[in-house]
Design brief:
562 residues, mainly alpha, Arc Repressor Mutant, subunit A, two-stranded parallel ribbon, 23 helices, 13 strands, RNA-binding
RNA sequence: GACCCCAUCGUCUAGUCAGGUCCAGGACGUCAGGUUUUCAUCCUGAAAACAGGGGUUCGAAUCCCCUUGGGGUCGCCA
């Protein structure tokens, strides 16, 4: 009895910056499946496209995976992850391997060299489309005899290598999610396996690497289902084992279109067009390199801006880029455990009514039989609700740590200012006061600026709610403000507890026990509006001097108005 | 257009494989009340779906067929 091979799954992204949520879900499922079976999860970089740049920023998704807690056993070495004996894990470093197998197919007559140019093929495709015909490569290369083709190749004439597919029969993928998927052999044409630059195509590299790396389960998005037929043919031709396949459905936008990195580019192009049309005399300010990048981007519809440039431009033209990447959600103040939970549930569920679970649970329970076949729309509101629950579930100390870290990372200027003025321990109080009112870590950022404004710069909102809180009733809000100042002055200690005691006691005797009658005018006086953390926390954080200054100023404002 | 895949509330889904316990359950969102020092919460309640049509069967959300709708793919991208 032979042992079943140890489960080895892999996630194989192309190096293109940050990880988008669809990729994250695929990686999550690959990882969970490997963990469940005590196997290995491999990360492989599919960098066979020389047209794409290869700077290190393109590997930002390594950081994203780490942040999500998806750790790879083999692959690029990064922060304690990676390594392994089946490398190198960058396809661009494995060219000799691919060449060896290409030669093998060539010698066996299972592949051949073809000399058509891209332009010639484009014309043929266009003609087919116009004639409402299905395009299929016509094997024109085979019209030239083999010796001539070898001679051309020796002379260095640019060419590709095509795989010769069977002329008849059917091809079946046994898919763990979808069952058997069969197509007719005539649906496939002789696809390219080696490009003119000598690099293998995706199809070829994937098949060779999965074999050499001992991959047992290929879990990937549905967009690859059709490719799988090609991969099976290659595996058969090369005498490779066939892994188990599982194709998961794509994640879509609310309008049903595939959620993709391009969505950001689309949104940006649209906003930029509007900006240029309405600001003819103004241009987007930037340094030379930035402007050059914009120009290139405008010339080529297929070109996408570097993500840093994209964010700069979005800021300049007032465009909110849709959150697509894991990092977008991280910046927006989502917790990794919430994103993981939500993503996992988008396409898989443990059955019954259970929705909330950890990645640990996923690793124990994930299997293909509960993977959804249909595409799932990405619902930001539900993600937000999940994030809210995740934040509320955090112990206070842990929330403070995460909240501080979030400010330091994404709002460092604000954080430094706050801690300089009020001190690090007061930031803790702010964090604690904000936990209950946060659905994301960023929710309370905008509502924290008033703490740092100069006392005499507070602007009072001119809304009904504000007026009502200040002037309605007898005594009115202004009257309470006047009366509360001495109460605050005489406190021996300025703590959340002493403030609470003083305000409650005042409300008891002067406002029929209705704290709101007193709290709301104070809130307006110190913040300018009706939104702040709990009033006792707010006053403590602000400090006694500022509180009294602001209340007095508010009262002066009343007199000026009367 | 061709090929392939899919189809339960607005959304994610349970139930489908082993037909009856389902006039279809949960969650997000929505709406209506309530609690609360504001915002955010929290509590209670409500509206909300088996795409349509044929079969099979005593019985169909569940099995079969057709139609319709949605998605994916059709690159020297991955």
């Amino acid at each position: 009895m032979s042992q079943p091979p140890i489960v080895r799954t892999r996630f194989a992204p192309s190096p293109s910056g940050h990880l988008h949520v669809g990729g994250a879900r695929t990686a999550l499922f690959c990882w969970a499946y490997a963990r469940k079976h005590g196997g290995k999860f491999i990360l492989r970089i599919e960098d066979t496209d020389q047209k794409r740049s290869h700077d290190i920023a393109k590997l930002a998704f390594l950081e994203d995976l780490k942040w999500l807690g998806i750790e790879w056993d083999e692959g690029p070495v990064f922060q304690g992850c990676g390594g392994g004996d089946a490398g190198p894990y960058f396809q661009s470093q494995r060219l000799d391997l691919y060449h060896k197998y290409i030669e093998q197919l060539l010698e066996e007559g299972k592949a051949y060299r073809a000399f058509e140019t891209t332009e010639e093929l484009d014309v043929a495709r266009k003609q087919a489309r116009e004639g409402k015909k299905n395009y299929r490569y016509d094997r024109a290369a085979l019209d030239t005899d083999a010796d001539t083709r070898e001679k051309w190749a020796d002379e260095g004439k640019p060419h590709v290598v095509r795989f010769r597919v069977p002329d008849e029969g059917t091809n079946t993928v046994h898919d763990e999610v979808r069952g058997d998927v069969t197509i007719d052999a005539t649906e496939l044409d002789d696809f390219v396996i080696q490009k003119a630059d000598g690099y293998p195509t995706y199809h070829f590299a994937v098949v060779v690497d999965d074999e050499l790396m001992g991959v047992t389960h290929v879990i990937r998005a549905e967009e690859h289902l059709k490719n799988t037929h090609k991969h099976i043919l290659l595996q058969e031709a090369l005498g490779f084992r066939q892994p188990v396949f599982a194709h998961i459905s794509v994640i879509t936008n609310p309008d049903g279109s595939k959620m993709s990195k391009r969505d950001k580019d689309k949104a940006l192009r649209k906003a930029y067009r509007v900006f240029v049309e309405s600001n003819r005399e103004k241009s987007v300010a930037g340094d030379e390199a930035f402007n050059a990048a914009i120009a290139r981007w405008q010339e080529d519809r297929d070109c996408q801006l570097d993500w840093l440039d994209a964010e700069d431009l979005a800021l300049s033209v007032g465009c909110h880029l849709p959150e697509i990447n894991v990092d977008d959600f991280r910046r927006a103040g989502y917790l990794p455990e919430a994103l993981i939970n939500y993503l996992a549930l988008l396409g898989w569920n443990p059955g019954g009514d259970l929705e909330k679970f950890t990645s640990d649970f996923l690793c124990k329970n994930f299997d293909f039989d509960r993977v959804q076949k249909s595409p799932a729309k990405f619902d930001r509101e539900k993600l937000r609700a999940f994030n809210h629950d995740a934040i509320q579930a955090l112990p206070a100390d842990e929330f403070v740590r995460i909240y501080r870290n979030y400010w330091q990372t994404y709002f460092s200027g604000l954080y430094d200012l706050f801690t300089q003025r009020r001190g690090g321990h007061v930031f803790d109080i702010l964090a604690r006061a904000n936990q209950a009112r946060s659905k994301t870590l960023s929710d309370t950022i905008n509502e924290s600026y008033f703490f740092l404004e100069a006392d005499d710069k507070i602007q009072y909102e001119k809304t009904k709610a504000v007026r009502k809180a200040l002037v309605n009733g007898e005594p009115c809000g202004y009257d309470h403000l006047e009366a509360i100042i001495p109460e605050l002055r005489k406190l021996l200690e300025w703590t959340v507890e002493t403030i609470e005691k003083a305000l409650k006691s005042y409300a008891e005797t002067h406002a029929d026990g209705k704290l709101g009658k007193v709290a709301q005018p104070i809130r307006i006086a110190v913040s300018g509006g009706t939104i702040s953390p709990a009033i006792f926390d707010t006053l403590f954080i602000l400090g006694r001097e500022s509180v009294i200054n602001r209340i007095e100023r508010c009262l002066a404002h009343r007199n000026a108005n009367v």
